[in-house]
Amino acid sequence: MKRLFLSMLFVAMSLSASAQLYPRNIVSVRGGLNLSSMSQKIGDARMTDNRNPKVGWHVGVVDEVLLKHDLPLYLDFGVMLTNKGVRYAERGVVAGSVDARTRTVVQTGVGYLQIPVAVSYHLYFGDFTLQPYAGIHYDVGLWGRNVTSLRVRSDKNPTLNTDEKTVAHLFEQKSLRRSDFGIVVGFGATYLERYYVGVSWEDGFLNLSKLSDTRLVNHSNFRLTVGYNF
């Protein structure tokens, strides 16, 4: 009986010790690259031609809190600064002058304060930890602008050659809503529980446009992230 009791106590202590191997709280500084776009409707027509991803960035802090002492399930929440948007390019000709070529580039850039909340599961493989996760994000717009660049070039009539740039501030002109809300899914990995790298995808749910004839269906973003855990 004494041996049985000691054996049960040993097993219980072993399980308790193994459960303590999961960090209770992980604070991480992260940043990286955004490749974002906006899908758009004008009336009932979805606009997809000549749209290209816009290169942006994100940086912030993420806190991972252990939900169960015996299961590596974490609640992740953070505060990020992120820059997203879309790039649109079109070529054409000057009206009434077929020998004059035009190139118009419109870049929409929006800076957000983002609050992501997700649930992640940590899978341990020696010095590596794999972390699939899924959750939601809420964004508050801090700044936003459209930069339109128009270039005209003519070989036969150089007097037509011009370069023009106009800037529109989206929130000041009340053409874009400040709030965005959507989902985020991703996959991360850490080495030695310190060095982090991950990829993720964001998809927004809200109509961002305040213009009656234009509807921005969603704001999507692919992210490549690196970080350091404390």
* Secondary-structure-derived class: mainly beta
Average pLDDT rating: 85
Characterize the biggest β-sheet: 8 strands, antiparallel, barrel
Shape: elongated
Biggest sheet, spatial arrangement of strands: 1-4-5-6-8-10-11-12
Helix content: under 10%
* Helix segment tally: 1
Radius of gyration: 25 Å
Oligomeric form: single chain
What separation lies between the terminal Cα atoms?
46 Å
Structure description:
With 230 residues, the chain is mainly beta. The protein is built from 1 helix and 12 strands. Strands 1-4-5-6-8-10-11-12 form an 8-stranded antiparallel beta barrel. A hairpin with a 2-residue loop joins strand 4 and strand 5. The two termini are 46 Å apart. Mean pLDDT is 85; it is low at 8-19.
List keywords for this structure.
230 residues; 71% strand; 12 strands; 8-stranded antiparallel β-barrel; mainly beta
Blueprint of the fold:
Blueprint: H1 2-19, E1 25-42, E2 45-47, E3 51-52, E4 54-68, E5 71-94, E6 97-121, E7 123-125, E8 128-154, E9 162-169, E10 179-191, E11 195-204, E12 214-229
Antiparallel strand pairs: 1-2, 1-4, 1-12, 3-5, 4-5, 5-6, 6-8, 7-8, 8-9, 8-10, 10-11, 11-12
